[in-house]
Amino acid sequence: MDFLGAVIYLREHSAVNCAAACRPVMNHVSNDQRSVTLLAVVAVSLSLILLGYFVFWLVPPASPAEIARNAQDILAGPRVVQPEPQEKATYFTLLLALVPLLFVATAAARRFRRPLGPLIERSAVLVAVAIGATLLACDLFWERQIAAASQSWSTWVLTGGAVILATALALPRVAPPVRRAVARVILGAALVAGAVITVCWRIFDVHSVDAMKNIGHFEAVAYSVAQISNGGTCLVDVIPQYGCYGEFMAPLVRALGVSTLAITLVFTVFQLIAFVGLVIAARRLVKEPLILALLVLMLVPVTNRIWYGTDDQFFQGMPVRMLFPALSLLVARAWLDSPTARRAFLVGAFGGLATMWNLDTGAVVVTALAGLVWFAGCTASGWRWTDVAERVGRLAACGAGVAIVIAVALAVLRWKASAWPSVTDYLLFQQVFFGLGAYSLPMSPFPALWSAFAGAAVVALGLMAARFGEGPADRDLELMGFLAVLALGLMSYHVGRSHWHTLALVSWPFLLLILALLDRAWRTVLKPARGARLLGQAALAVALAWAIAIVVQELPKVAERTAEQWARWSAPGVARGHAADVEYVRAAVPAGESVVIVARRQTALFADTGLRSAITGMSWIETLRKSDGARQAAQFLDKPVDHLLLDATQCCPFGGPGWSTWVYDAMPAIREKYAMIAWTPTGTLAHLVPRARKGPRRDLFEEQIDPGSEVHAVWDKMRGFVLVPGSRPLGDQRRWWFRLDRDFHVEIRFSMAAQQVRHAVLLSTYSGSPHGLAVEMDAIGRDANIWIGTGEAMHGSPPFRIEPDVQHVLVLTSRDGRVRLLLDGRIVFDAPNLEMKPSANPVVLGAWYGPGRDMTWTVSEVRFTFGDAPQPP
Q: Mapped to the 3 state alphabet, what secondary structure does 357-386 carry?
């Protein structure tokens, strides 16, 4: 948590690695200036270091009793609760202490008539280079990207061509308009590429929902949009995790027709607005076109998660957490150009809209804008504390703008729903995550990527503090100070959940700061000196070439992913998967009848059917507290709804907790009041109706498989798997709604294709917790493994080969939890000392509980025996 420790680290390394480059710069500064500057920097750094360590030592860590107390109402229990009071206290203390200490150091230096500004201005390039080097050293993502790019011959060809072009453009004979034209072409191409990539992989429709790699993240962010678009109201009918952005999006979604396509399209448009707005705002800070092009190319992987190993669109990060912070840079620019009381009110109104859009980032935007309103013009000569009354008036106008917009928004919600919105529910998820510490992760120890980012913000604030009241006015520097405060505030998301993915989500303002420092150094130090300009332009060309290479090397994966989504969209054919379930729900739920859906794809089902949930609250995946789950279950138990659609893992005869454990806990009461009349076409949703409405239809709840019985199925080309003897299975051809307990015998006759997806599943009862078993292919799709869950961990077998296009017999047997696996009569796994703890999930054959792991094979026969299972020889 020690931000200024990062500054010392960066300065030390910049001095070691860049001494030669630093020498010409330092010659412009006297020895007295150097000593006073060094003294001020060391004083600020040591003060923050000591303060950070003191606060971290003073605040006790979370005790087991505190963790247990915080976890009392959390469905997942104490294992996901980690309050981290030391990190949070240190973070907020250093934020509050940073600016005062910088101004104290500046005032002290001025008292000795030794300005800090000249040295900081001239050494900005060294600091920026040191921060960039730290970024590369501390971040495995960039390491992997650079290593991959270095292995491609095209990268080196591109690098050589870029250096030659940069050298040619730097020659005196080349006219400046030619240089500017080339730079603008590169910038334009980077901007177009960034915009196209932003759009191409984010859009889904009813036929491509099954291609979503993380449906849970989509559920959490889009549920409120679907419910509000279908007539609900934020904070009355829906308790959103990420804010009332659904009210902003609903008119556009309704205009397009409520659907998954409309929701993802509007999200994508807002992300495109954020991306373009950020680039427009960056032009104020980064004036060199090539450096701006480098920024755009760096933003492409940062704002598109597919570049760093996940196909998850994560709309809650971008655009929800990026839109208003990015646009706030444009608002800050407009304010600095004309700081009047009227504009202060409009700045506050923007902050109020940002707060209603998303509370987390809205609070940061309001705080940063309020600071900018107060300190506007602070770099001008003669800016002192004498005009306090005028600044107080502007700050009051800004606060009035925030308050009036929020009050009007709440009044509109009250008029829309005929009920007052619950303001306390707007803080619910902040209490769960940041307050109780649910799903928190510890921060990486220093030195780490976050410390380099924090160092960039400290340098930017130091630059502004050094020019405080000195003149001439430097609005760009004031905007840089605003961006530093904004960036440090957005880092609170990473402080709470310190995964490197969350740091990537908040890295864009820090990247802008770093390149703004480079641009500033380019204009003040390198450009005036011809030799330094040539060297700097060559280095910039190399950086630009490698940024292009990093972006280009991932394009085939992006193109493949996009083609998969758009192929399903453009040529849907017969409704399958999610689309088939949508058709079923539309036909099974007549207009005017109430419906509740609690299942995976809940949001997409509501969006694509145009239905609205009959109960209020949050989505199934956002229901993290026992009290919230009990309140939602009570709504459809106290007053049964006409149709209840539940996830199969919650309600099958031997169903398990899955994600929404509150549904599983309520299943005894649900079975008393509801009957199961059907499965949807995918076999993943159970259709329940009140028992009074069941009529002559059979209750599938009563169809259990008793221990000792046998399920024997053969493949029929017309009907899929058919039970022998008996009726067709409850699920589809891949899912069997019964559980494998401690004693069972499974035989599968099959042949598989040579090409398999990563971790394709043959058979599984494992879905996250260390229970059950899974037989699956490896990451390459060539060899197979079996994994056994003991309740504490999953234990894997050595890989074994399954020859493609050959008929095989796989036999899986368990007695008292001791599992043995045979392939074609040969034992490939036998661990008598390893006891499997059964999973509550049903058997999945040839697929997994989520998309993307389907087995490409032909199965001719399946036999399950339960109870006293026969043992193989």
A: HCHHHHHHHHHHHHHHHHHCCCCCCCCCHH
